[in-house]
Specification:
The protein is an alpha/beta fold. It contains 14 helices and 15 strands.
Length: 423
Amino acid sequence: MIKEELKPNELKRLDEEIADAVRRIKEGAPKQYIPEEAPAVLLTEALLRKAALIGASDIHLTPTEEDVRVRFRLDGELEEVLRIPRSGYRALCTRLKVLADMNAAQSRLPQNGSLSFSYFGEEYDVRLSSFPTVLGENFVLRSLPRSCPYSREQLGFLPEEESAVRRMLSRPGLVLITGPTGSGKSTTLACFLKELSSKSQNIVTVEDPVEYRIEGVEQLSLSSCRALTLENALKDVLRQDPDIIMTGEIRDEETAGLTVRMALTGKLVLTTLHTAGAVGAVQRMRDLGIKDAFLADALSGVISQRLVKRLCPYCRTSVPTTPGEQVLLGVPKGTMRSRAASCEKCSGRGSAGRFAVHEVLEVTDSFREGIRTGRSTSELSAIAFAEGMKPMRERARGLLLKGEIDMEGYCSICGIPVPQKEE
């Protein structure tokens, strides 16, 4: 990985390469040129490397009437980085399709592909999706380091949450990671598997596709075998004599049932689910046809999470809370909070990366009995809170008052509208 002190010079070099490639596209490519030095080739390489350098998770190429917008997703938000002439876009599309082993002659149907590249000794895997629109093909490139760059300690669990997670991962049962799309669920699972990987345990994953490659783990990518379905793969997993199984998202009744049955065989099973909160996972599994008795025996814990932008510590400013915010937060008049500003350190964004906020539910005997007897979500929540589960909203409130996040971040964690500004 490139050293921090070298990043400014490298960023400047890449920006110059991008500007030169765009200039050559505008001027028109000469009739004779070395293929490796074609503008589309140089622009593709520079964009991929710049995204890796600044930590962008996605590159969006969107054609408009006049030109093509290039945007990077940074800290969860899209930012436009440049525009390129439409005259050079076809060559860029062709270059991407060739690299990703897609059909370069097909532009009227959606396509998916993948490529990889190396940058300062780090390997990156890129997933490509092309989508035909009335103005041309729209491309989205998801770029991830091949190896998960994070550890369990960097996930941001509170000490009491960390203890609960360790207990969940040390025994057989079903552990669910929940949250909306883009909340870091795959990264959390990868960190768990990195820690659990050992010579004495056989870990098998079924993913679509494989997000991070983890040494010592048998990883199956469904995207590499079109004829294989998630359901069929899960049925064959147990023949691999696994101690730990990780699957992708639970999407339907069949995958939910297979996942629960694997956990009931005495395996540790890790998977993801879309729910609003930790306790809500119980009702979601019920909706997918899992009987209370089976779920009570299988479920070991639920980790619900959200990703939120951390305010830049160099430029954040303090402001008094408004009367509406005081009611929302339950704080007295005169309480201060922080808001985003702008400086060179954060490149004017006001934020310094993102971090995860969790709600950790460890299934205790009382909670298990609540599931078995068909208790409602509100009743199960009361049991969980009584036994020490810290609600995500409470965690968000603490982060807001400490100046780690702003009001927009607090509301995104809680899933509520941002209070209107008061005159």
